[in-house]
Amino acid sequence: MKNRLRFIFLSFMTGVALLAASCSTQTAPAKKSAATTKTGDSINGQTIRVMAYNIHHCNPPSKPEYIDIEAIANTIRTQNPDLVALQEVDVHTNRSGAYNQAEEIAKQLNMYYYFGKAIDYGGGEYGVAILSRYPLSEKQVHRLPTQAETKGEPRIVATVKVTLPGGKEIRFGSTHLDAQKTPVNRELQINEIENIASGEKLPFVIAGDFNASPEFEVIRQLDTHFTRTCQTCAPTIPVNNPNKAIDFIAFRPAGKFRVKSHQVINEKYASDHLPVVADMEVQP
Fold first, then answer.
1. Over the range 59-84, which residues count as b (16 or more CB within 10 Å of their CB) and which as e?
2. DSSP assigned state of 92
3. Pairing mode, strands 47-54 and 83-91
4. Cα 53 to Cα 62: distance, rounded to the nearest angstrom
5. Strands 83-91 and 204-209
6. How far is it, in rounded angstroms, from Cα 260 to Cα 258?
7. DSSP helix/strand/coil, 265
8. CA pair distance 153, 76, nearest whole angstrom
């Protein structure tokens, strides 16, 4: 009897041990990485937050001749974007000091950057820039046309290839169209942007200051080839009592992105434009 009881007891304890071992080998829930907890990211890492911001060469309108790079960087940091299209960026100019503003902002935000020169200005350069949380390649400046007799300021669109988490690639562009009252240059320039886009194989997001509101032909032309992240768009200028939307984010083809949100940020100090932010899901 003793041996039988001992056998039953040992069999019982062996079963308990085997059950415990089985439970201990079950996979624990995976922890989210830092990348998936960011405001603009979805679980699969394919939602991007895009920002368009005319930074007025980092000069707060309320403080003439004062340069506040940190205020621009803080505005961007608060929104935690993945991609940023900047306009009115100074590099080593007399009015802004010995700074590459694109580089300085990127350093403060720990982002990649690309500056595209539109013109020589004040002993340095002036143009647009791109900031990115993800690696950049195929960086390029495309010159946009200006009708000679208008003596309009030369304009560009800067484009890059962005490699997103998981290897998905998109094209991203930053632009700033002509500011003259006559629309002729803006119309020429949007036509050239459409020509550039028509030869693009990657999904393409463009953002910037188009110096035209939606009721004008320039934006109607934009809408024929791109989809804006807003249709009834909140105004972006002036920062005090804004009444006109001229800063936009747009994409093509329409089926490659889904707009999750679009907002104009009510930041009145850092620049003479309000920044625009959109969350966009990149479709497979």
1. bbeeeeeebbbebbbebbeebebbbb
2. S
3. parallel
4. 18
5. unpaired
6. 6
7. coil
8. 27
Determine the length of the chain.
284
Among residues 131, 79, 74, 78, which one has the least CA distance to residue 100?
131
Round to whole Å and give the CA distance between 185 and 51: 25
Task: Report the alpha-carbon angle 13-17-18, nearest 5.
Answer: 115
- For residue 160, what are the β-bridge partners? 172
Burial of 148 (0-12, 13-18, 19+ CB in 10 A): exposed
The dihedral of CA 98, 100, 106, 107: what is its sign? negative
Q: Which tens digit of pLDDT belongs to each residue from 148-191? A: 999 999 999 999 999 999 999 999 999 999 999 999 999 999 99
pLDDT tens digits, residue range 17-61?
A: 433 433 333 333 332 333 333 444 444 548 999 999 999 999 999
Domains and their CATH numbers in the chain: 34-282 (3.60.10.10)
User: How far apart are alpha carbons 34 and 229 in whole angstroms?
Assistant: 27
Q: Is 132 exposed, middle or buried (0-12, 13-18, 19+ CB in 10 A)?
A: buried
> DSSP states of 32-67 as a string?
PPGGGGSTT--TTS-EEEEEEEE-GGG--TTSTT--
How far is it, in rounded angstroms, from Cα 68 to Cα 90? Answer: 12
Q: Is there a contact between 54 and 85 (Cβ–Cβ < 8 Å)? A: no
H helix runs in the chain, sequence order: 2-24, 69-79, 101-109, 184-198, 217-225
Tell me whether the omega of the peptide bond preceding residue 253 falls within 30 degrees of 0, making it cis: yes
> Could you write out the three-class secondary structure of 109-154?
HCCEEEEEEEEEECCEEEEEEEEECCCEEEEEEEEECCCHHHCCCC
pTM of the model: 0.85
Question: Are 284 and 275 spatial neighbours (Cβ–Cβ below 8 Å)?
Answer: no
